Amino acid sequence: MTKRVFVTGGAGYIGSHTCIELIKNNHEIMVFDSLVNSSEEALRQVELITNKKINFVIGDIRDEIELLNAMNNFQPTSVVHFAGLKAVGESVQDPLLYFDINVGGSINILRAMEKISCKEIIFSSSATVYSNKNSPPFNEADDISPISPYGRSKLMVENILTDWVTSNEANRAVVLRYFNPVGAHHSGLIGENPKGTPNNLMPLILQVAQEKRDHLWIYGEDYETRDGTGERDYIHVTDLAHGHVKALEKISQLNRLQILNLGTGLGTTVRELISTFEKTNKVTVSTKVTNRRAGDTAKSYANAVLAYELIDFQCKQTLEDMCADAWNWQKNN
Fold first, then answer.
1. Residue 91 contacts residue 153 (beta carbons within 8 Å)
2. Which of 13, 130, 150, 234 is catalytic?
3. Strand partners, 176
4. Neighbours of 271 (CB within 10 A)
């Protein structure tokens, strides 16, 4: 069944890759993006990859009027909501900005959906909502206690969605808690291209490998992990994009509010990721160690069995694929 999908943050890293998969699966899309941490160039590349013109509106989810106008013009059956800020460290420094955009913007989206009778939303949440007292792999029923304003902003939206689906039997929401997206589209035409200083590990590795930076800072090597560095579940962005499409297509068969982890179920330390990147791409990444960052946890990786059982989600890309595709994107751009 073809759906009309309103994609907030669709010009961003995960959003643009998901747009490709939505189009490949014959869904019609409109992208709504402020371009604060993204570029319209990504959408031009999506058009090149899919050979399809994208309906795009520049807008901020905090602006209720322009948001409603865009939705009203498009009349979506569903929303896939990526738009928001996502840096743990930045959220500690400016929590009000994170609550304003991530929480306030999400409320505006739901209000607009109600006004046009759109009943389905896929929400981009995060593994940062889990308590660091849990033992990984984290599953959807584990204790929730985010330690950063970013994580708390995601949890607030999850709670709002819980109440939103309760308020109307027709409303349905899927909350996708994902772990650490890396890699790029295999074509090399789109990838992660953050504005300013990157907040995620892979873009920093890429910049050091390309000698745009002298070295990579490793934040802490005294964690209780195999080599003392933080351990994360890295998932190829294309696998993650597939997960969104599967969730959208199965939404009517799921609980009215369905929470699902999207990850590989495997933990990889910072040093292991760097080593794999170096071996895969035959490059050197210089590193220096500094203190831990506020809001970081030692280990975070997924139990993704429920997503496999309910939406047939499984990761097909390896860590080597992630490293190779990310480097291919960086060299081409």
1. yes
2. 150
3. 124, 260
4. 18
146-171 burial: b if 16+ Cβ within 10 Å, else e: bbbbbbbbbbbbbebbeebbeeeeeb
By the 8 A CB rule, do 247 and 174 touch? Answer: yes
The SS3 call for residue 160 is: helix
> Please, what is the Cα angle at 240 between 269 and 39, to 5 degrees?
100
User: What's the Rg (C-alpha) of the chain?
Assistant: 19
Tokens matching residue 237: 């962005």
3-state secondary structure at position 296: coil
So what's the pLDDT on residue 264? 96
- Rounded Cα distance between 174 and 81, Å, is 10
- A 10 A CB-CB count for 144 gives 17
How far is the C-alpha of 70 from the C-alpha of 253, rounded, in Å?
Answer: 28
pLDDT of residue 65: 97
Stretch 28-53: mean pLDDT, rounded? 96
Q: Does the predicted TM-score (pTM) go above 0.90?
A: yes
Question: What does the pLDDT average to over 101-105?
Answer: 98
Average pLDDT, the chain: 95
- All structural domains of the chain, each given as residue ranges with its CATH number in brackets, are 4-183+234-263+300-316 (3.40.50.720)
- Name the token pair of 278: 């170096």
Catalytic residue flag (residue 150): yes
Q: Which amino acid is at 152?
A: R
Which DSSP string do the residues of 11-45 spell out, in sequence order? TSHHHHHHHHHHHHTT-EEEEEE--SS--HHHHHH
